[in-house]
Every structure is written in C-alpha cells, then in structure tokens.
Batch of 4 targets.
Target 1
Amino acid sequence: MFRLISVAGRAALQTGEHWHDLATLTSDPSLADPMAAVARHHELHALHEAAADATPDGLVADVTLGVCVPRPQKVFAIGLNYGRHAAESGMELPPAPLTFTKFPSCLVGPTADIELSGPAVDWEVELVVVIGTGGRHISEDDAWSHVAGLTLGQDISDRPVQLTGKPPQFSLGKSFDTFGPLGPALVSVDQFPDPDDIGLWCDVAGERMQDARTNDLIFDVRRLVSYLSSICTLVPGDLIFTGTPDGVGAARGRFLADGELLVSGAEVIGELHNRCITPAAS
Ligand code: ZN
C-alpha cells in the first residue's frame, strides 16, 4: 500500500501524518518526478514499508500539496456515467462511455483556488483512475492490474461554454485553467475495501450537494479501462475522470459564487478544499 503525494513539485510518500521525499528516501533523483513515481508504482509498496523506518521530512499538514499526477499525457473524462445524473441532465443513457477530454493544463492541487470564468460555473465530484501500467486492448479482467491507484477530482464546468452549439463540444468548457482540482493523494488500490464501491460527496459553502457511491457507475472502472484502451494506447499517468453523480448546480439552478468554499471528499482518498474566486480583470 502507498499514498503518493506531491510536495513542492516533488514526489513524496505519505505515512500517516508525515511525508517522505521519494528521491531522498531512495537516493534515486529520477524518483523526484511524480510521473516517474507513477510509472514505477509497483516499487512504491516496498518503499512505503521502508519509509516507516526512516526519518520523515515533515508533516503533511505543514505543506501545500501539489498535483499528485501533474503531467498526464491524456485526461479522459466520462459524461453521464451515473443514471440519476443522466436523468437530471435530461439526457438518455449513452450506449458507450461518453468521453471528452480535460486538457492537462487545467489540473491544480487539492487546495488551489478555482478561478470562476463566468456566472454558471458548476461542480462535479468524481473518482479519478490513474493508469500505472500502459497497454492497448486491455481486457476487463486485466484492467485493475493496469491501475496505479485512485484519486479524487473535480470536473469543474462552465455550462454555457460546455453546451454551446449543436452538437456541443464539452472539452473547452471543462478546461479553463484551475478547472481540474486533483488529489489530495494517489492511493493504491489495495487500500480500498472494495474499489468498485467508494463513497464520494461534495459540499458547496457548507451545503451537501452530491452524495453517492461508485457502485452506481453505469460503466465501471474495468469497463472504462478496457474501452478506452481499445481506442488509445494507455500510458502511465493517464487519468480517467469517471463521471459525476447527481446533484450538480445546473439541476439546482445554482452555481459557484465568488468566495465560496468547495469541499469534495471520498472514502479512503480524503478531501479537496478549493476556494472559488473571481480573477482580477486583466
Ligand atoms: Zn464530469
């Protein structure tokens, strides 16, 4: 088991409330890069054990965590992957995973500010799969063995931009800078009692907006990894935002406002705390 985090841009392992710089722990400078650490995920289990006997570099509570997977080659995101969310969006269930991209430049850390791009910016809490071992034509049976671990993401969405035109193209409306809070840690799959049944939730300004379990996913993690790899060669660090449950702002007629705190959480993984701000005019 391991929890991979990013401290000052460097890969680190979390043990309880402490963190260990991975390159220092291993005397291997190449492991300072979180992307290299993800690709070597099999080694992180033993390094977690080694870290328990080593002097930590500090307390996690004392540092600002960065993006645990900062430079993915691909960021897939899945639309309408929970039945009740499809219903609240007034759309039919898709026959195959409805896939768009969030460009990697939108990713930010677990406590970063979200810059509101307009009056209808929405929240979408999502389980995020991190590919650890690449491949093409991965079978559903093999899918979990290609996963380095799981983390939590917010698929922040500017609804008018997302839904402009027919057919609408989702990717840019979900890719404004800061629209992809991720973290707080990449958690190895073996830490979940059932990795196909993880509770996740989202609070806006203290009000619970989303509360669901991933056992309600229409296309589960096995299916997503297998399907996406039938089209694209997957590589270590690729991310899959697996879709959001019901309770988004568009269905409530309420969107993120300047100064509001967005708290997103998932069992085992932890929480994201992101303040919404209106960027100064430039
Ligand atoms: Zn989404």
Note: The first strand starts at residue 3 and ends at 7.
Target 2
Amino acid sequence: MTTTRSFGRRASGLAALFGAGALVLSACSGGGAGAPAAGESGAAPAAEGSIKVGVAMPTQTSERWIADGNAVKEGLEKAGYTVDLQFANDDIPTQTQQIDQMITNGAKILVIASIDGTALSSQLDAAGAANIPVVSYDRLIRDNENVDFYVSFDNYKVGVAQAKALLTGLGLTDKDGAKAADAPVGPLNIELFAGSADDNNAGFFFNGAMDTLKPFIDEGTLVVKSGQTSFDQAATLRWSQEAAQKRMEDILTSTYGGGTEPLAGVLSPFDGISRGIITALQGAGYGPSIADGLPIVTGQDAEIASIKLINDGVQQSTIFKDTRLLAAQAVKTVEAIGKGETPEANDTKTYDNGVKVVPSYLLEVQTIFKDNIESDIVGSGYYTADEVAAGVTK
Ligand code: BGC
C-alpha cells in the first residue's frame, strides 16, 4: 500500500524541515560540470544547508533529454539547490536503481522523467513513505498516488500539430488548417508511427494526430494502405530509430512493392523515428528530398540532425518543445514545493495517472518547417545558424 499523505502535508513538512535550517546534506561523489556520462553520478558537492534534488532522466541517446537534464540541473543550482542528475540509458532497472540511490543519498525532492511510466511504483512508494515530493517531468508517472505535480507540454496538441503539418505537407490544408484551394482529391497513401507504448505521452500524441486525420481517412482522401491503424500496430518501443526503420522497410516490402508504389506521407511522433523512416524510404528509392518525391515525414523535438534535414528539404517538419522553458517550469515547481507552497498549475483535469488526476503545468509547442527555422529556432537562440547548417551542436 502506498501512503495517503497529501501533497500539502508533505510540502509543509518540507518547509518546516528546510526552515529549521537543520539540513546538512552529505555530498555524493563524482559528477561535476557538464553532462555526466551515462550511468555516472552528476551530483555536485552539497553546500552546507542546501537541499538535494534528485533529477532522473531517461536517456542520453536523444539530445532533448541531455538538454533537459542539464537545464534543470543548472536552474536548480542557480536557485541554491544541490542536484543529483542521472541518465538511465533507456534501461528500466538502471532508472529504478538510480532513484533508489537518490532516496538513500538524501534527496528531498525528486524530478523524474520516466522510461516506463508504470515501472516506478516501489520507488514512489519509498518516496511517499519518506515524505519526498515527486515532480513528474514531461512523462506522467502512472499508477501511484505519490506523484505530486506534472510539468509537460500539451501532449494532445503535439499530436494535432503533427497531423496538421502532415496535412499541410500533403497539400490538403494550408498552415492555418483551412482546406487548400488546390487540394489533391486523393486517395493519398500514408503510414502511421506512434511512440513507445509505455510512455503515457505516446497515446496523447497518437490520439491528437488521429482525431485530426480521421475525417480525411473517413472520406477516403487519405488511405493507410498497410491497414496498420491501431496504436498498438503503430507503436515503437523505446522510441527506437532502428525499430522504426525496420518497420518502415517491412511496410514498404509488404505494401508498396519495395518502394515502387506511391506513398505520400508518414506520420512520425519523434525526430529519431523520423530519421529511421527517412533512411528506409531513401533506401527503397524515394527522394532523396521532398522535391524529388520523398514522402512527407513529420517529427518532434527539433533535434539538430532533423532541423538540418528540414533545412535541406528532406524531413518536412518537427515540433519544437523548448526544453529551456520546461526546465524553468520544473525549477519553479521545485521552488514552490521547497517553500511549502502549491505549485502553479494550468491544468487540473487532463492527466489522470490511473490513481489520481495530477495537477499539471502544460507549455505550448510550435511547429517548425523550413521557412521558420531562421525566425523561431535560430531567432530564439535554440541553435545557431552554423549549427543548423552543420547538423550538430557545438
Ligand atoms: C517526449 C517527446 C520525445 C519522446 C522520445 C516523449 O515522452 O514527450 O518529446 O520525443 O519522449 O524521447
């Protein structure tokens, strides 16, 4: 059984603890400046009296999580906290062990981006028993009541935005979503990819996208020729680029004559998956760029390699989630909790984790096409123009 302590009681307990100034936390060895290597401790030495926050991130294989982890760490350290940042190599036992260790090492607040949202129950039970508030970061932790707050983006709207980008790329709508005057009558063949089924976000993305595509599928303008339209059929375990490439290759073989038949677009929920899909498509003879007939492929995360592909006219779009803003929101949330206050929520209805509705703060996202890389990606300082051209960050 999990504890039934409410967030309010836990938070005020914390405030009392911090207020008494009795907290002298022992340092975790290792770490230091910069991103720790996978599995290494990113803990900075604890300043006397500073509060330790455990930050658990899923992986370093996708650059967004490195950026998230580093931005959260930096923001918390600036706010006077000591941070134990860990990345788990997309391996569930590694993540559970890291969180157990954070609790043992004296973390007073946990910020967790889970790998499998249902696999952390014993860690959350332990956190609840020790009065440690838990902030679920970007991915909702499920089936446990000791999830105090959720910071993320509007995940349903991410899926809507991905589908809208696909519709625009296919010439069916303009960028405002209105039917294009010269829209093709179709039928146009598309294929669907979803994220990892153990990530709560993946369903939100897929539902948002499917609700948007459905009218076009129902009227026959769009056809999912493989027939693989369910979430389970489209899902990609651990968001794996290789698995996506393999599934795309299999679909091309089974349904598109190995690449000789028309395929107009592919819904992709994540840039890594998009790059796997694009490799499969190009390998089968489509493209190499959209102008040469490469199908429209969407994405998510504005990863530098995909921003370059968009700039080069290969990938059509991505969804920009400004990790700097999400990290700043997580820091604000931790600070509120640390002071015994209720963190600011802007959604208290949507994110039911199976046990309770978790109060959430959801940020907005932006769709990036070739024509707004300069204004929205370079202009906001996310990447420099040189990084976009090179396809790597410095
Ligand atoms: C995140 C996405 C990301 C995906 C793969 C999801 O939980 O919300 O931004 O593309 O994980 O890392």
Note: The pocket of beta-D-glucopyranose is lined by residues 62, 64, 138-139, 195, 199, 201, 239, 270, 300-301, 321 (CB under 6 Å).
Target 3
Amino acid sequence: MLNRRHALQITAAAGAAALLPWDRLTGSSAPAATTTAAAAEAAPISPFAHAMPVPKVLAPVSSTKTSQLYELRMREAQVEIVKGLTSRVRTYGGTFPGPTIKASQGREVVVRQINELSVNTAVHLHGGHVRSEHDGLPMDTIVPGAERTYRYPNDQPAASLWYHDHAHHLEAENVYLGLHGLYLLSDRNERSLPLPTGAHDVPLVIRDARVEADGTLLYTRPSDCPHMLVNGKERPYFKVAARKYRLRIYNACANRYFKLRFADGAAFTQIGTDGGLLEQPVTRTELLMLGGERADIVVDFSRYREGSSIVLENTGALSTERPEVMRFDVGRATADHSYVPRRLASAPPVLPRRTVQRDFEIRTFPAMTINGLSYDPERVDVTARLGATEEWTIRNVDVPAAPGSPDFHLWHSFHTHLTFFRVLERNGQRPGIRDAGLKDTVTLGPGETVKIAMTWGPFTGEYVYHCHQLGHSSGGQMGRIDVVG
Ligand code: C2O
Ligand code: CU
C-alpha cells in the first residue's frame, strides 16, 4: 500500500529533500513524491451539490469540574466528499474532518488517542499552550496499534484552536487525508459577550483537495487540487436565517493560501484571530489566509432578502479553477439579539523589553529550509530562556516566478508552538489589520519580511517552529527550539 511504501521510503531516505523532489521547471509549482504516479482525472466539479455539515461535537467519556476525558480512534473511513463518490480518508473518530472538542478555560482536557491507522501519527493542539510531552512533537509519534494520552491545561483565553497530525515527514499527507479537527476553547469573558452563539456560531474548515474520478483523495501539489472543501464537502451550500452569524474560518490547506470575499464585495466584521478575540472588532471585505491561520468573523445576513443566495469566493484561486468556495442561502428573518460589542477582550499585555533578536531566512527553492538547514530533531536551533521576550525577523527569500504561474510554494506561513506572538512590522511598515491581535501563524508572501515578538513560556522543554504550508514543514522547513529555565 501507498502508506506503507511511503513510510519505508522515509526510513530509507537520508533527508527530506530526497523524499520530496520539488520541481522548479513548472515555475513555482512543487509536486510531492506521491504525484509521480501519473494522476488520473479529477472528478468533475458541480458546486453546491451538498448541504454543508457542521462537525459534530465530541462527547467526553467522563468529566469532572476540573477535567474532561475524551477518546478518539484514528482510523480509515469512507466518506462522500464529492457528490456520488466514495473516498477513503484518515480520520479521528471516523468523521472527516474530526469531531470538535469544546473546552473551557480552567478545565483540563485529556484526550486518549488510539492509532488504528497503518502510519505513524502525532497529535498537536495548534495554538494550545501545553507541556512539551503533550505537544505532539514530530518524533514523539504514536506507532500503528499504539495509543497515547495528551493533556491540555486550557490555561489561556478563548480561541479557535485545532488539533492535527504532526508526525515527522508525514504531517502534510496525514492532515490532507483527514487528520484534523477543531478545538474551540471558550472563557468567561467570551460567554458574557452578546455574540451569536449555538447554531449561529459555525466553523468553516476550508481546504483544497484533489478527488479523482474514482473517488480517490490524492495528496498532490496544490495547483492540481481543483476541489475546495468546507467541513469536508466539496463547495457546499449552507442555509442561514436572515440574521447575524459568527463564522470561524480555518485555512486547513496543506499547501495553499486563499483570499476570501463575498461575491458582492459585502463587508463583514472580524472579531478574532489565531490567539482569540481581538480587543476591538474591525470591518473587512477580504481575508488573506495561509495554512494554519484562523479568522473569526460576524456576518449579518439580514441585509439579504429571503430566498437570495450569496457566494463566498476565493480570489486567490488559479485562473484555471473555480473561485466559488461555498454558498449561503438566506432564509427567513428571525429574532436576533446578538450584536458585536465595541470591546471584545482586554488588550494584550504590553510587551516587555526584547532581550534577544534572531533572524530567520525561509525558503523552498532549492530546498525547504530555515536558515539553510532542514529540520533535524537532534539539533537545537534556538535556545530561549523561559519568560524572555524575543524579537524574530523572518524573511521569505523565495522570489516571484513568471507572472501568472502558480505561486503557492513561494508563500510561507510561519508558525510557533507554545506561545502566541505579535506582529511588529511587515516589510518595514506597521502591520495592518490582518496581522492584528495575538497570532501563532503569520503569512509571508514572496520576498516579504515580518518582525514578530513573543515571550517564551509558560513551560520549558522542546518545541518547534515551522512553516505551516505543511508540504514545506514535512520537507524540512522546521526548527527546534528548547525553552530552558
Ligand atoms: Cu498547526 Cu506545528 O502546527
Ligand atoms: Cu513554507
């Protein structure tokens, strides 16, 4: 089987570069190893054939006031992604994407993960501030047949987090094939706000895919992925009442950015980002998001007439692709007492003096590296002191290819584990709204430079930082950071 073969290749290969022969000939577009098998034909696209599901909320096995225990079996399942076709996927608990875990601040979540797949896995809580041994580090894998219990303290403010695979060299393919799910952390402040809740608080997990005409979900380069999935279905429709909705948008693509807007250009209100609620809401008309990023927005559908439809589109799609992502079908007006308050959360604390400055150069060509090195779990790239505030300058040195060619692999999405950061500068300027608030993932377009600052903690131990274009991190665009006391 492909999985087995892939695993064996990994053991045999000296380095990631040998594994993933990125191809410069076709411009900037980079095929993964699995694409060398000639691709058959992609399944035809007929948008808005499915109703959009909302991932189900996982019920705890047991819970107390201070702790909740969950159990998930990682296993293969057959699902319908494109109408009428069956695709084999890798899942948490049999659903695609995985079930949503709802957590609240101050109450620990314990997840027992059982690996019934034929590949190694490691479960990482993206945006979670957790101890190193529960972080799902690349080498800290669950081998087939084994299990592992992860503990998440939830000692941080409300935020839209997610859990996903992180096994060394395998994360891109594992996440692509389905190993991702949501983790919605709430807190008292968030619950006190008059924001839309319940059925009006809806996650949109957006990602590209290539489904073959026979249903096979194929892991391949993004420019060969014409399908766009929301909550596991190809370009679905979603029935909404003519009222406000909170939409938590995730870019769960392994290798692609998108630029989302409503087809009529309508404005919406952004209330949160990676690290949780913004201090104040902002009005936006477009979201540029790269892998790993989240945007929490409120959309008022009462401005549309009953019976009308509004399409969410991706203006970052290739010219050969369809721009539609999903369609909202507006129904009746209902009572709506929700609103977006002027103040959402307290301002993040003032950053202390930055004691350490570090520089990072990130590139895909000719090899996927950070500062010229590909990830080596035995090599410590950064040693940071617990509680130290550092300033990191990150440069994307990949340059634009010929105009019009797919440029997904010239973009990087810099992500750190353990702590959130703030974006201080983008290309020497003060950052705009898309970099506002507490972030754990920052987008770097071709040739861009960002300056970020973070305080390392609250735990010591081994962690990683990496590009969240997972094809890149799987290929080595990752570094090890040890936080020491
Ligand atoms: Cu969501 Cu280390 O990643
Ligand atoms: Cu990258």
Note: The CA atoms of residues 426 and 450 lie 4 Å apart.
Target 4
Amino acid sequence: MNKIKISPSILSADFSQLGNEIKRLEKGGADMIHVDVMDGHFVPNLTIGPPVIKALRKYTSIPFDVHLMISPVHKYIKDYADAGADTITIHPEATENLSESIKHIKQLKKRVGLSLNPNTSINVILNYLDQIDLVLIMSVFPGFGGQKFMPEVLEKIKKINQIKKEKKLKFDIEVDGGINFSNSKVVIESGANILVSGTTIFKENNGDLKKNIEILRIV
Ligand code: DX5
Ligand code: ZN
C-alpha cells in the first residue's frame, strides 16, 4: 500500500502570513503544498497568481501542488511553471486542446494533473490517463474552502482506481474538498493516495497542523 500523502491547501491559511504558514506546514509533516489558483471566471473566487507563488517558493523545498482553476488556462501554464510549480493541475473544460496543454506541461518538465469537478465524467479524461501523473477528483464544486464533502464522488474514486489497476497505470489519485477526520478513511479505502485539506488542517485541534496532518494520514 503506497504511503498516503497530505497536501494542505493554503486557501485556508492566514493570507497575511503565507510564507510562515508554508514553513509551519512543512514542519508539521506536509508532503506538498496545495496552491489553489482561482481567476474569478472559471470559479467565483479570486486568489493568487504567479508572483505570489514565486515569492513563496523560497520558503520551502517541498513540492508545490498547483491547482489551476482558471480559464482559459493554456496560455498561463508557463507562468506557473516558471514561478515554481511542481505539479500543474488543470481542468479539461478550461483548455481548447487538452492534448496540447498536457504536452506543454510535460515539455516544461512538470508533473501534469487533470481535475474532475463533481459533475464532470471520468470519460472526459479516459484517453489521457497514460500521459498524466495525477487525477484530482473534486469532492466539492471548486471555488471555496470549508464546503461539505460530496459522498457521491466516492463511486468516481473507486472507478478511477479500478481503471488504474486494470490498465496498470501509475497516476496518483488526489481528492480535494471537504476532507475531514470522519471521511478521510473511506476516501483512502476508495483509492485516493493524496488528500487535500484546508479547513480541517488549519482549524481542528486548535490549529495543531502536525496533529491534524497525522490524523488524516491514518488509514
Ligand atoms: C476548492 C479548492 C480546495 C479547497 C479545499 O475550490 O480547490 O483545494 O481549498 O479546502 P477544504 O479542505 O476546506 O474543503
Ligand atoms: Zn484545490
């Protein structure tokens, strides 16, 4: 059973202290940092862009797991690669040519992820599974932290895990949205090997990051 990785979302961090928050997360045992980029167009919220990611890069050496909730996305991919992203995850709906966008991320020597909204079928990405490093399954409609986990996505996680096994593929399965202490186990048992969490990690146990990261990892 490969190790469960935790990717805390800085969307729930203190935005006035992002550098220190990232250092605290690394010290607390985070495997990577989930950076939610939102453009107020693909999703109804606006967060951070390449200059902020570039400024944060020097605060940690752990990977930046960058979730681009922006559209159109293709022309901005290089900016995020240059800013220090390690994984660049895009939504299929946000590019006119998914193949080209995947190729572009790979040419930039970054890990490539595809993200499925709760109402986006696995069929949309079936033909690309052998070209990507990560499938990011949204368990909320993207745009905000603190939303309620949608249990109907468990079937989707199981299905993508089954396809991964049948085709002997290596992509990671990451789940993002409303992950907490009561659903993390069933999400892992369904096939996820990376959990994103913002609210639970920053708010539970008086914000004890190390403790919250550890609890989420337990199967
Ligand atoms: C939502 C983001 C998620 C979110 C997770 O659009 O993609 O990464 O920040 O936050 P919680 O864990 O609070 O649902
Ligand atoms: Zn996210």
Note: The helical segments are 18-27, 50-57, 77-83, 98-107, 153-166, 184-189, 199-203, 209-217.
